[in-house]
Amino acid sequence: MSVAASAMKLSEIADRLGTTCEGDESRMIMGIAGIRDASEGDLTFLANKRYAAAARDTNASAILVPRDWNQATGAAVLRVEDPDAAFAEVARWFAPPAYEPPPGIHPSAVIAEDVQLGADVRIGALSVVESGVHLGDRSVVHPCAYIGPETRIGVEARIYPQVSIREHTRIGDRVIIHNGAVIGSDGFGYTVDGKGVRTKIPQIGIVEIGNDVEIGACVTIDRARFGKTVIGNGVKIDNLVQIAHNVVIGDHAVIVSQVGISGSTRVGKHAILAGQAGVAGHIVIGDGAVVAARGGVTKDVPAGAFYSDYPAMPHNEARKKHAYIARLPKMKEQIAELEKRLKQLEEGRT
Amino acid sequence: MSVAASAMKLSEIADRLGTTCEGDESRMIMGIAGIRDASEGDLTFLANKRYAAAARDTNASAILVPRDWNQATGAAVLRVEDPDAAFAEVARWFAPPAYEPPPGIHPSAVIAEDVQLGADVRIGALSVVESGVHLGDRSVVHPCAYIGPETRIGVEARIYPQVSIREHTRIGDRVIIHNGAVIGSDGFGYTVDGKGVRTKIPQIGIVEIGNDVEIGACVTIDRARFGKTVIGNGVKIDNLVQIAHNVVIGDHAVIVSQVGISGSTRVGKHAILAGQAGVAGHIVIGDGAVVAARGGVTKDVPAGAFYSDYPAMPHNEARKKHAYIARLPKMKEQIAELEKRLKQLEEGRT
Amino acid sequence: MSVAASAMKLSEIADRLGTTCEGDESRMIMGIAGIRDASEGDLTFLANKRYAAAARDTNASAILVPRDWNQATGAAVLRVEDPDAAFAEVARWFAPPAYEPPPGIHPSAVIAEDVQLGADVRIGALSVVESGVHLGDRSVVHPCAYIGPETRIGVEARIYPQVSIREHTRIGDRVIIHNGAVIGSDGFGYTVDGKGVRTKIPQIGIVEIGNDVEIGACVTIDRARFGKTVIGNGVKIDNLVQIAHNVVIGDHAVIVSQVGISGSTRVGKHAILAGQAGVAGHIVIGDGAVVAARGGVTKDVPAGAFYSDYPAMPHNEARKKHAYIARLPKMKEQIAELEKRLKQLEEGRT
């Protein structure tokens, strides 16, 4: 499947990427596609040098390749530093705009009288926008979304269907929230009596989300017990992530799918938590730290460190640990061998 | 609790299961129930031979047992190859049909003018069906669901409340999608600049789902960066599963709850990923392979293999690894013993 | 951010907590806040003795501290047994009531004619309440929720937006269900033929939820294959938890975020499953047992036990196991040393 939202001359693509074209640069490019799916008129890219055969056989009209690539292909060749990034760039030029509901407020949406809507706001069918909400200019609320009382959302937000945003949430500019995500549900907090019966602690804080944040489908972000749960600027959160009450996520951090972050933990700026990682409560993960997929963090992680395993430790230590475990059969043999030789010595002495 | 949607003579049940009845075969069976919950008029089954006492004491009027079972019971006995499967078969005869909204389109639903609806389609209250959608014959959209523009759904679909299906999705025949599932949300893809600031890569592909697929509650399936994310025919997906962009799931694969599959990974036909397993990106899992619960797959898995542990390895190796780890206290003792004997030898020599 | 829903004299707070005030007890307290965020008029608390500097510098007017605390602070001091619990108690006095939609039924909600609504029920905009539903006195259904046919809900329920409750569910009194949760979706059950093709087993049971239960955002609880899935009284379930068909959760159990519980497993009363734990099917977890975060339970857990690791084992054993693994480099050295000394002995003998 190729995507053809517009057409562009190959020479223009080469110019905009700061490279030249080896082949017919007057060719019109109509769309982009993967190397095996591409057809005539498409631009593709070499994601990995292992795909040399696919590059030779591709039906694409042009291909982005690394500067030093020297294999055969029938397509016109554009050499670039990073074909993947360059292809993403071209994809932005060709991508059709994200689907939006038509301008204005759908008559079936239920909008409180006192909402403050910026210019060119769109609200889809059967959405609910409660009292006191502010929605910034050019923000889009898709159908079937719920925005709770006194919530403020900046400019150019994109709120997808079935999203729930609870009361008093603060959301910055250019934030995207995918379907089914829940922002501002109560934190998980109870007092427990002598019989093990729990009583709910009121969760009277809020959630505050910065600018340029993207939040995946079915993500849950709890409001603070008091004060606020904070998602910094530029943070990207993948699907099905859990962020507990009073967590603070630093600017530009990346939280991959199915990660869970327990209450009051702080994640540093530019930190990356890979898929299915988990972090205990009241932990500090330093700026720029990386936790590998499935890492289970039980202690603070220093800035810039790369941690993995469970309980999480520096990745080098984890690698050594696994290497030692892999040597266990060998160690067992060595012990048996020592035992045998020692026995011979003992018998020789008697 | 027994389920009594109809009544059937025990002789007829025996006939349809290809067996005979030991006991009063003229007895009317009014419902089915678990061995401990059953009351008079119910059919039950022996799930496990350990439940001999429950079989003796059950109030059920009839019981499905393995062919070689020889314990006491007051119920009429039907011997079958696989009591569990036979009970499931009887359950299908007795099960009330799944609840459906009434025929037609509820007046509160918001349906674009140009949708194409097959015969006997039902659409529940407050659902949204956007422009260009095709819905096949006898498909059912429950209340509060959202179906995005240009999506095509085959015959006899069952779309439950709060489901979100985004634009351009392709769905086959007889597909069931449970409440809160999200199909076609954006893949998680960014380019990153020198300062660690990420820019969204447009996700311009689609999701394509085959025939006879069932998708659990709050599952998230991302659309492809370009091209398509594919769910094959007969695939069964449990609740809270994450399927990233450009993943391809082969026909009849089974994905159990809370599994996460990273971008561009391919899961073979008839493969099984058990609960909470995770798979890294760009991995190939062969046809018929099984990944045990919690398995964390970081390398390709051959067809037919049974992998477990993290990082995932052949299950036999994982078992050996754990056995070696369990021997560590013994090894420590052996080393101490060798040390002691060696010291005696050394002292003896001096 | 401080929360100021009311004002209370410090002497009254001290009285109600059964303590006295060291400082100006006539002071009006206007809100509560964390130790670093508090401003004049706020009450705060010392969560941890490490925060002595914050206690010295806080702008709060009063602080809850442990009885034996003896550091400097400018705030009035209230000594209590457990500052955290006492603060939660004060928070309950100051907390604004949870947001509720206005009294009555919003005209845009779609309510079947035969529903039975108790006194003072509130139903928000664009919610659907199907035929045969009972809603107890003072229950609140927020906007955009779906309550399926024949479901019964007790008094003072709080059902948040985007919740789905399927047909025939039974819910007790004072139950809170957070946004996006799904109650009563089909269990994951199939028979499989010789070609590996699966056929759905009807899931004709129900979900039954006790009194005083809280269920987090995007939790999924499947209906029983037959009979019922049971959530006992006082159970607290955090976000994104999966509870499979026919599971039984005992009274007052606590299930933390992202836990998965497989089919037919029984969790004892007052048991605690910490974050990201997983439990296989048909397991029994005894009363009061605790499974640590990430624990993967593959066998029964005795009452009162504390299990961790994967596969889960008594926590003491798991600690020993990890200690032995950490000793592996030392063991390797010991073996090399023995080898060397043994070789010397052997050479000495020849």
Layout of helices and strands, plus pairs?
Three copies of one chain form a homotrimer.
Chain A: E1 8-9, H1 10-16, E2 21-22, E3 28-29, E4 31-32, E5 42-45, H2 52-57, E6 62-66, E7 76-80, H3 83-94, E8 104-105, E9 110-111, E10 116-117, E11 122-123, E12 128-129, E13 134-135, E14 140-141, E15 146-147, E16 152-153, E17 158-159, E18 164-165, E19 170-171, E20 176-177, E21 182-185, E22 190-192, E23 198-200, E24 206-209, E25 214-215, E26 220-222, E27 228-231, E28 236-237, E29 242-243, E30 248-249, E31 254-255, E32 260-261, E33 266-267, E34 272-273, E35 278-279, E36 284-285, E37 290-291, E38 296-297, E39 306-308, E40 313-314, H4 315-326, H5 328-349
Parallel strand pairs in A: 4-5, 5-6, 6-7, 8-11, 9-12, 10-13, 11-14, 12-15, 13-16, 14-17, 15-18, 16-19, 17-20, 18-21, 19-24, 20-25, 21-26, 24-27, 25-28, 26-29, 27-30, 28-31, 29-32, 30-33, 31-34, 32-35, 33-36, 34-37, 35-38, 37-39
Antiparallel strand pairs in A: 1-3, 2-7, 22-23, 39-40
How would you describe this protein?
The structure is a homotrimer of 350-residue chains. Chain A is an alpha/beta fold and 350 residues long. Chain A has 3 domains: 8-94, MurE/MurF, N-terminal domain (Udp-n-acetylmuramoylalanyl-d-glutamate--2,6- Diaminopimelate Ligase, Chain: A, domain 1, 3-Layer(aba) Sandwich); 104-316, Hexapeptide repeat proteins (UDP N-Acetylglucosamine Acyltransferase, domain 1); 325-349. Helices cover 17% and strands 28% of the residues of chain A. In chain A, strands 8-11-14-17-20-25-28-31-34-37-39-40 form a 12-stranded mixed β-sheet. In chain A, strands 9-12-15-18-21-26-29-32-35-38 form a 10-stranded parallel β-sheet, with no helix packed on it. Chain A is flat and about 100 Å long. Chain A starts with 7 loop residues before the first strand and ends with a helix. The model of chain A has no long low-confidence stretch (mean pLDDT 94). The interface between A and C is large, with 61 and 65 residues.
